[in-house]
Each structure stands twice: as C-alpha cells, then as structure tokens.
C-alpha cells in the first residue's frame, strides 16, 4: 500500500529527491539517522550553523511515517491536551502547546520562504457520538487555558451526524513530500549529504562516535537517532513507547451539479470511536478537483485480527457518507505514544553525551518533529528554548507510570501468546501453501516459521523478531510480518521495514 504523497511523486513530473554517495570512513560533525521530518529539520538547523552534516536513511526519504501521514499542521490535535493533562500537569500542557506553536511557526515560515504550498484550514475536533460531547468541552477549556483561540460549535459542514466540536481557525495542511524535498535540497546546498539505502546497525559512543552501517563505518562528533522509535536499546525506550498503526485512504468524490455537495473544507478529527480523520488535497495547480483523505481504525502494531478488514471498513464508511467516492490510494503507518503523551527528546542514556534521540509524537509529528529538532539543536548550541526546559524537567506522575506498566503487561501477554500459539500449532511441513496475500505461522522443531505468498512468490523466514524474540503476526493489508511486542515490521522475504531492530529476519 503506497500513500497518495509517495505515489504521486513517483507518478508525476515532480523531480525525484536525490540521494548522495556513501563515503566509507567519512567524518562528520553531526550524523543524523533517519530522513523523515525530524531528521531533515535537525540536519538543516545544524547545517545552517556551519556544521558538517550527514543524514543516513535505511530506505528512502519519507518512506516510513512522514511520507504516510495525513500532514495536518495543527495545534488543535483531537483530544491530545486532555490526554497529556491526565498524565502530567498544567505546566506541561502549557509547555507542550508552546513547543508545538514554535514548531508550527517554524514550518509555516520555512514553507513560505521555500514556496512549499500550505493550505490554511480550520482544525476541528468533533464528537461523533453523544459520549464525545464532554471530551469536546474538556479540550475546549484546556486549549483556552493554554492560550489557543478555540471556539465551540454545534453544527459542522460534514455529511454525517456530529454532536458539537471545538474549532481552531487558520491551521495548515500540506504534502509532506514537498516539505522533505525542500529540506533535503537545502541541507545539500549547505554542504550536507543525505544518503538513502544505508541502514545504521550500531553506534559506539567513542570520540568521535563510530556509526556502523550496512555499507561501512562513518564517524560523527554527535549522532542523532531520528528513526521513529530509537534503534539502540540503551535506556530501554522501545519498552516505554507504544507502537500504534493506523490507516488512511484517498478518494475522488463526485461534487457539483451531477454529484453531491462540495467537500468539507476543514481538517477534522473525531474525539471518540470510531476514530475518523478527514482533510482534502487540492488538485493540480492548487484548485479543483480536490481529493478527500479519510483516516482512522488505529491499533497496536501486530495485534489486529485482520488489518485488511480495517481498510475495507474505511472504504465502506466513506462510500456511505460520500456517495460515489472512488478510492485512489490506501495506506497505513505507525507512530509512537509515550506513557505521558509528551515526546521524548534529548540525550540517550549511556551515550556519553554523543547520542541523542527524539520519538513519541503520538501521530502529531508535523509540529512535534520540528519542536524536537529545535530542542536538539538548542540544547547542543547552549540555547535551549524555555518550553523545552519545562518539558525536560517533567516529573513522572503515577498515572504515567500506571500507563507504562499496563503497556508492558500487554506486551508480556503477547510474547506468551505468540510463542504458545506457534509451538502448539502445526509443523511447517504440514502447512498448506499460503494463498496469494496470506501468511501462515508454523514450527520447525521449537523454531516458529513464517511462510507467505505475495505476488506469486512464496517465502519462508524465521517468525522470531530479531529484536527481543517476539513471534510475528501477518498483516494482510500491508503483506508484512509485524511484531506485536515493540512494532518492528518486515517484508515477506524478511527485509526489515521499520521498528527498533536493525536486523532482517533469518531466511
Ligand atoms: C496514519 C498517520 C497519520 C498521521 N497524520 C499526522 C498529521 O496529520 N499531523 C501530524 O502532525 N502528524 C501526523 N502523524 C504523525 C507523523 O507522521 C509522525 O509523527 C512523523 O512523521 C514522524 O517523523 P519522524 O521523522 O520522527 O519519523 P519517520 O518519518 O518515520 O522517519 C524516520 C526515518 O528513519 C529511518 N530509519 C529507521 N531506522 C533506521 C536505521 N537503522 N538506519 C537508517 N535509517 C533508519 C526510517 O526509514 C525513516 O525514514 C501521522 C502518523 C500516522 C501513523
Ligand atoms: S520489536 Fe521488540 S521483540 Fe519485536
């Protein structure tokens, strides 16, 4: 499944985003691992300060979360403020809003300077059921208390029933690949390099830090892990983050005389179940016909019974409310939730002050990636933003500890379930050949195996995640093997796609 953004770049005349050659043994000031939004903004900030920068990307620019997001650049983020408040305290809510405001403003200024199209839109958090009305009210009050100019409305221009909403005017939306392409160009123009197809497999916190990759070793005075979840186990952050996957699809919708009403123009997110996110994308040249994006149906990675059913459900819901809607692309992606719902940004324990990371944006990375990059840059240049100081010194409250314990208990249960199911299941030799698009778990002695058939090719690989031994589950929508413990994902042939591990599956 490919996102609208990634597909339209490869299908259009827009220039591809170039990659630089890998130079074994090269020495840089800042090595940045991962070319998503966090990595490229961090790289640009350091490159502007005259640092020699290398961005190493295991796949391609934007291939993972950023190129698959719905790219709303908003300070009203569903019911995020009350989730943060429930796990922290008011000063943290305020610092979070201030951090995101700085991230949003940086991005708006950057896009305007670089001519990246941004559509200004109202952000809307709506109640899709009567049960969501109180959540809307709480978000309104918290947003107001943090200085956001929100208002409450009773009705919306949506073609389905809603029960009131909180609205923040004049937020933004864009094509995330446009932003990444501009950032990569600017990093290069300042002497930096952005190198794709280079997986970092380990970092030694020596002076300079040694960065081992699939193509050789380079070194850097500092290393920044902007890889979604950190790829090093120091600090056990993989266990503190919850990997959550969700779905999106784009649609051509008939509007005007022969079709229905014009598409709703806000950026909408339900505060209750079923989760639904909506926005539009302008047609070529910024005009009609617009494309509708609908997202939702999230779940912890590797733990959904049938991922394809979740995509089908999005299509059915959209067809019901936007008659004649024709899907053009559907895709999914994952992001990471922290126990207190505030991103982790800073130095990695036992990294001797040479290894830094940023993660845990809870699906609000368009503003949070930028605030994280501003934090990493400010901390190292001796100019930490005031909101970052508050976020750094946050005290962990019992609610956040409880949330972490609950998440780890669930992980333990999935570890047991995976192994017990695999060992009680059929031997690999006794399995039928998987049908096209299907994957089956078997066992070869005490070793779980994963067999799948995709595009006519049958592959058999180990079903044991090389990170910490979780037994993988089949993701029918993405035709991938996904780890229910900490969210690593693999292609049918065992190639690593994303997650905390740095290794492929054994064949
Ligand atoms: C379905 C969905 C919709 C979303 N919609 C929105 C939205 O509307 N608004 C919003 O604000 N946020 C949204 N988000 C969140 C947002 O997309 C993410 O928070 C953000 O893109 C994360 O950026 P990143 O740079 O940290 O990670 P990524 O974009 O995932 O970049 C990390 C990069 O690191 C690379 N990498 C990983 N391991 C290695 C390694 N070992 N060596 C080298 N490279 C490596 C990966 O290949 C990847 O390219 C959404 C998220 C999801 C899942
Ligand atoms: S991602 Fe940790 S065990 Fe699989």
From TrEMBL:
InterPro entries: FAD-dep_OxRdtase (IPR006076), FAD/NAD-bd_sf (IPR036188), Rieske_2Fe-2S (IPR017941), Rieske_2Fe-2S_sf (IPR036922). It comes from the Bacteria. GO terms for molecular function: 2 iron, 2 sulfur cluster binding; metal ion binding; monooxygenase activity; oxidoreductase activity, acting on paired donors, with incorporation or reduction of molecular oxygen. The keyword Iron-sulfur applies. GO terms for cellular component: cytoplasm. Residues 428-507 form the Rieske domain. Keywords: 2Fe-2S, Iron, Iron-sulfur, Metal-binding. Pfam families: DAO (PF01266), Rieske (PF00355). This is FAD-dependent oxidoreductase.
